[in-house]
Amino acid sequence: MEKDETSTVQDHRDEDYAGCVKAGGIMPGTPWRRYGWSIMLALTLALLGCSGGDEPNLTGTWTGTIQDSLAGTGTALFTFSQTGSNVSGTWQFTFQNPVNNAAGTLSGTAGDPAIALTLSAVQAQACSFTVVANFDDDDHVTGTYTTFNCPLSQSGSLDVNRQ
Fold first, then answer.
1. Domain count, the chain
2. What gap in Å lies between CA 16 and CA 12, rounded to an integer?
3. Does the pLDDT of residue 132 top 60, yes or no?
4. CATH code for the domain in which residue 65 is found
5. Are strands 72-83 and 86-95 parallel, antiparallel or unpaired?
6. Are strands 128-137 and 114-121 parallel, antiparallel or unpaired?
7. C-alpha distances out from residue 41 to 32, 46, 66, Å
8. Residues 102 and 126 in one domain
9. pLDDT level of residue 33 (50, 70, 90 thresholds)
10. pLDDT at 58 > cutoff 80
11. Which of 43, 92, 105, 137 sits 20 to 30 Å CA-CA off 22?
């Protein structure tokens, strides 16, 4: 008895789904498709585990230079305290002309490598700043800042090192 063309096609389909049969019918997809998402999830979790989720630690005193759009070159002093990714502390900008000096409290977050801070000035007339920075290594940070809720448009860059 010879097989006709229809039964030959069906035989090849059966071979394609070998190992994918369940009670009541054929499971959709090939075995690699069924397990592909599980494999991807496992790999993603493994990679996240390797990174450890550790935030760089800013805790301590950091000093360096700033280049301000209005006040010119100055020095920056930051004192950070960190719990998890949350950062708090104090800041101080010092310039040759004392009229431009400012200081206050700070808060924000530190990830790897990004840092986002809000610098709130204690002087009533002084502007507050937002800072976006990155860790270059454990003891060096560079970034930029700009004013917010301030009549003056002021911005600059900072380059600080852990002391």
1. 2
2. 6
3. yes
4. 2.40.128.620
5. antiparallel
6. antiparallel
7. 14, 9, 44
8. yes
9. very low
10. yes
11. 43
State whether 64 and 144 are in the same domain: yes
Residues 30 and 76 grouped into a single domain: no
Q: Per this entry, what is the length of the chain?
A: 163
Residue in this structure with the two tokens 């049969």, named with its chain if needed: 21
Which region, left, alpha or beta, applies to residue 29 given φ > 0 means left and ψ of -120 to 50 means alpha? left
- Which pair of structure tokens corresponds to residue 82? 């960190």
Domain that holds residue 25: 5-51
**For residues 78 and 40, what is the distance between their CA atoms, to the nearest angstrom?**
42
Phi, psi for residue 69 in degrees, rounded to 5:
-65, -25
Asked if residue 134 and residue 76 are part of one domain, the reply reads yes
pLDDT band per the 50, 70, 90 thresholds, residue 94: very high
Token digits for 136? 């270059």
What token pair was written down for 143? 């970034």
Same domain? 99 vs 38: no
Place of tokens 């002021």: 154
Specify the pairing of strand 102-110 against strand 72-83: unpaired
24 token code pair: 């009541």
pTM beyond 0.90, yes or no = no
The model's pLDDT over 11-22, given as tens digits with 9 standing for 90+, comes to 555 555 455 455
